[in-house]
């Protein structure tokens, strides 16, 4: 019996992808930076590594400065341990599409802060993350931009967001679909 080698995303690869995506959406970030200074933090390790349902990224307004963090170990864990992908090309595509979704989601939060959202308003909106209207708005914004760019990438993200998992049985079909 032959061994199946699953692809693993590395934090250094994710960091490079975040930088590329930042350039792709630079105009949005420049518009936001006209309202508040913007500080980027790409976190490579943290104490919540591998815990379920942990934050992939975060943004907030603090001391008149917008901050955005990418918790790359959380993203790495999500991709590596939720999915069993053996096709390297497909794995690269999935990780880039997922990072793009996270980046755009956080971009919407930055816009919300520029429009007057505060941490207090955010917390008062809902006790549950999935019921929070600001989270729903950020998800819709990210999905809308991705759908405008690629209907197939949009469908792939919908599959992931709704709990779908990639494996040796469905990865080739999805890979062909998003080419």
Helix content: 55-70%
Individual helix count: 8
Q: Mind describing the biggest β-sheet?
A: 3 strands, mixed
The topology string of helices and strands comes to: HHEEEHHHHHH
- The averaged pLDDT comes out at 80
Strand portion:
5-15%
Could you tell me the number of beta strands? 3
Gap from first CA to last CA = 31 Å
In angstroms, what is the radius of gyration? 17 Å
Lateral arrangement of strands in the main beta sheet: 1-3-2
- In terms of per-residue confidence, which ranges show pLDDT below 50 for 5 or more consecutive residues? 1-6, 48-52
Alpha-beta content class: mainly alpha
What count of domains describes the coordinates? 1
Shape from CA axes? Answer: globular
Description:
- The protein is built from 8 helices and 3 strands; from the N terminus they run ααβββαααααα.
- With 179 residues, it is mainly alpha-helical.
- The chain has one domain (11-177).
- The chain has a 3-stranded mixed β-sheet with strand order 1-3-2.
- Strand 2 and strand 3 form a beta hairpin.
Describe this structure in a few short sentences.
With 179 residues, the protein is mainly α. It has one domain (11-177). Helix content is 57%, strand content 11%.
């Amino acid at each position: 019996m032959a061994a199946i080698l699953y692809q693993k995303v590395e934090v250094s690869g994710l960091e490079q992808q975040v930088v590329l995506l930042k350039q792709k959406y630079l105009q949005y970030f420049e518009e936001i930076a006209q309202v508040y200074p913007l500080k980027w933090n790409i976190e490579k390790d943290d104490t919540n590594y591998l815990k379920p349902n942990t934050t992939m990224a975060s943004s907030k307004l603090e001391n008149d400065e917008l901050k955005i963090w990418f918790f790359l170990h959380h993203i790495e864990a999500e991709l590596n341990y939720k999915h069993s992908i053996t096709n390297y090309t497909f794995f690269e595509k999935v990780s880039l599409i997922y990072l793009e979704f996270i980046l755009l989601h956080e971009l919407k939060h930055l816009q919300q802060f520029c429009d007057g959202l505060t941490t207090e308003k955010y917390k008062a909106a809902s006790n549950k993350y999935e019921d929070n209207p600001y989270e729903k708005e950020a998800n819709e914004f990210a999905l809308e931009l991705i759908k405008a760019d690629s209907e197939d990438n949009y469908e792939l993200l919908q599959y992931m967001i709704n709990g779908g998992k990639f494996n040796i049985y469905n990865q080739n079909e999805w890979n062909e679909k998003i080419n």
